[in-house]
């Protein structure tokens, strides 16, 4: 196929299984485009993804706020009671001179997860209103860079490991933020698994193709 300019590449899509090249066409809402050779799904167009994505992102943001405001665990040791909140963990690291580790934790446990879900909400709102063609493209690019740097799932596992080690020495009470963090991590995993960025990218293309 002769390409007149690089923009023509944007209209081509390669089958992830048999690598056959296809030209992208507009498909009806609720349908999917399949490879002519092997039948694998190339892309879908399901506008319900916008409402589902928006609802999930807003719910995740609420649970994230609860997880950060309230104590994650309460530890009682030798009569001393300590409440641990997520922001407290990386602020303590900074106060104790571990500036790099503290800042890194602040970025991957607070800043990036918050920014990712705020960007998701903005993105789904733009797609719902069928506005901001260029901004929605940029948001998707930023999300693809930021997604790997959200590490609340690793943090949750590390809390569990630390608690298991402390069980013999202290009395541990899970706070409301712990359960909020569990729900947030589950929502984050669900979003990563079922609301894929490439599917939103294709959905965006279909929406703005339809608008023209
Ligand atoms: Zn194929």
Strand and helix map with partners:
Blueprint (H helix, E strand, L loop, with lengths): L11 E3 L6 E3 L7 E4 L6 E5 L2 H22 L3 E5 L2 E5 L1 H10 L3 H31 L3 H14 L5 H15 L4 E4 L1 H19 L2 H15 L1
Antiparallel strand pairs: 1-2, 3-4, 5-6, 5-7
Helix pairs in contact: 1-3, 1-6, 2-3, 3-4, 4-7
Zinc ion (ZN) binds next to loops.
Which structural category fits the helices and strands?
alpha+beta
Low-confidence stretches: none
Instruction: Provide the spatial order of strands within the biggest beta sheet.
Output: 6-5-7
What is the succession of H and E elements?
EEEEHEEHHHHEHH
What ligand species are in this complex?
zinc ion
**What is the alpha-carbon Rg in Å?**
22 Å
Helix percentage: 55-70%
- In round numbers, the mean pLDDT is 88
Q: What overall form do the CA principal axes indicate?
A: elongated
Strand content: 5-15%
Tell me the count of domains.
2
Textual characterization of the structure:
With 212 residues, the chain is an alpha+beta fold. The protein folds into two domains: 1-45, no CATH class; 47-211. 59% of the residues lie in helices and 14% in strands. The protein is built from seven helices and seven strands. It has helices at residues 48-69, 86-95, 99-129, 133-146, 152-166, 176-194, 197-211, and strands at 12-14, 21-23, 31-34, 41-45, 73-77, 80-84, 171-174. A three-stranded antiparallel β-sheet has the order 6-5-7. Strands 1-2 form a two-stranded antiparallel sheet. A hairpin with a 2-residue loop joins strand 5 and strand 6 (80-84). The mean pLDDT is 88. Bound molecules: zinc ion. Zinc ion binds at residues 15, 17-18, 20, 35, 37-38, 40.
């Amino acid at each position: 196929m002769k390409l007149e300019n690089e923009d023509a590449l944007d209209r081509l899509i390669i089958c992830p299984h048999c690598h056959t090249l296809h030209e992208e066409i507009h498909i009806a809402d609720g349908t999917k485009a399949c490879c002519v050779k092997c039948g694998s799904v190339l892309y879908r167009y399901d506008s319900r993804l916008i409402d589902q994505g928006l609802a999930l992102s807003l719910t995740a943001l609420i649970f994230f706020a609860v997880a950060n405001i309230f104590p994650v665990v309460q530890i009682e040791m030798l009569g001393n009671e300590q409440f641990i909140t997520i922001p407290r963990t990386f602020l303590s690291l900074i106060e104790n001179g571990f500036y790099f580790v503290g800042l890194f934790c602040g970025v991957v446990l607070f800043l990036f997860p918050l920014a990712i879900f705020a960007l998701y909400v903005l993105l789904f709102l733009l797609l719902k209103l069928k506005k901001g063609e260029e901004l929605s493209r940029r948001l998707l690019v930023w999300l693809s860079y930021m997604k790997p740097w959200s590490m609340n799932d690793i943090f949750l596992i590390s809390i569990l490991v630390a608690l298991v080690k402390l069980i013999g020495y202290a009395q541990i009470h899970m706070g409301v933020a712990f359960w909020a963090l569990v729900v947030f991590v589950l929502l984050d995993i669900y979003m990563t698994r079922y609301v894929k960025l490439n599917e939103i990218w294709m959905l965006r293309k279909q929406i703005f193709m339809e608008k023209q």
